[in-house]
From TrEMBL, chain A:
The keyword Transmembrane applies. Keywords: Membrane, Transmembrane, Transmembrane helix. This is Uncharacterized protein. It comes from the Bacteria. The chain crosses the membrane at residues 17-39.
TrEMBL record, chain B:
InterPro entries: Sortase (IPR005754), Sortase_Class_E (IPR053465), Sortase_dom-sf (IPR023365), Sortase_E (IPR042003). The keyword Hydrolase applies. This is Class E sortase. The chain crosses the membrane at residues 7-28. It comes from the Bacteria. Keywords: Hydrolase, Membrane, Transmembrane, Transmembrane helix. It holds the Pfam family Sortase. It comes from Sphaerisporangium corydalis.
Length: 52, 207
């Protein structure tokens, strides 16, 4: 998978490296700002109220 | 076959990294949201109080959507959170919340607050350290209510008796002003609730 991504990214090693870092950063930002906030209410790590 | 195994391995490593990042989000990402919101709420409370002083009788909590400020000296001199009205998921992301329908600060009955223990700045992370006699100070609508811790208990999540007007005795009529703090227990778990009780010890007008 990662080998395949590395192969299809155009450019020399330097350009590839920069592209990969940007892609990984973008994935991280999407996870942090969109996916995790949606996921968090469904993870029962910190339920604080009492109720039936 | 080898390519398949490699793909599985890479996916597993990726999933592990994503989960690690998610743990980081729970511990630090959520806190930054709460801290930002608390700054806004505290500023609104301060402004509202200044407004009260200037204009006379507009209650501070009406404008800010908050009940007041909670301070617990045992947990540090800087320990100060704006308390919101409500205990929905969204309310509790912004700070400790007051159970709607329970007593207001200083009122006869049970003033019940809930707060996160491990995520969203974890306002109630260390309330297990409170000892009998420790102060819980609530500044609300120009008054300062000082409660003193009277006990601690670990209960079942369904045990609603602890938030009754007389904690533990839902059928009795209250005659005292008490406070109840609830949070999760043990840390990082939803299995039980940690509950801290307190009794009103004094009221001052100049907060």
């Amino acid at each position: 998978m990662y080998g395949w991504i590395w192969r299809i990214i155009p450019g020399g090693t330097g350009v590839k490296l920069v592209t990969v870092l940007v892609l990984a950063g973008a994935a991280g930002v999407v996870l942090w700002c969109v996916v995790f906030p949606m996921l968090e209410p469904h993870v029962p790590v910190d339920r604080v109220t009492v109720g039936p | 076959m080898r390519a398949l195994l490699r793909a599985c391995g890479e996916l597993s490593v990726t999933a592990g990294l994503v989960m690690l990042l998610f743990c980081g989000y729970l511990l630090w990402g959520t806190s930054s949201y709460t801290e930002w919101y608390q700054r806004v709420l505290k500023r609104e409370l301060r402004d509202a109080r200044a407004g009260t002083a200037a204009h006379g009788n507009r209650p501070a909590h009406v404008r800010a959507g908050t009940v007041g400020l909670i301070r617990i000296p045992r947990l540090g001199r800087d320990y100060e959170y704006a308390v919101l009205e409500g205990v929905t998921t969204e309310d509790l992301r912004r700070g400790p919340g007051h159970y709607p329908g329970t007593a207001m600060p200083g009122g006869v009955g049970n003033f019940v607050l809930s707060g996160h223990r491990t995520t969203y700045a974890a306002p109630f992370n260390r309330i297990d350290e409170l000892r009998r006699g420790d102060e819980i100070i609530i500044d609300s609508t120009g008054r300062r209510y000082t409660y003193r811790v009277s006990g601690k208990q670990v209960v079942d999540p369904a045990d609603v008796d602890v938030i009754a007007p007389v904690p533990g005795h839902p059928d009795r009529t209250p005659s005292k002003a008490v406070i109840t703090l609830t949070t999760c227990h043990p840390e990082y778990s939803a299995r039980q609730r940690l509950v801290v009780f307190g009794v009103l010890a004094g009221t001052r007008d100049d907060a």
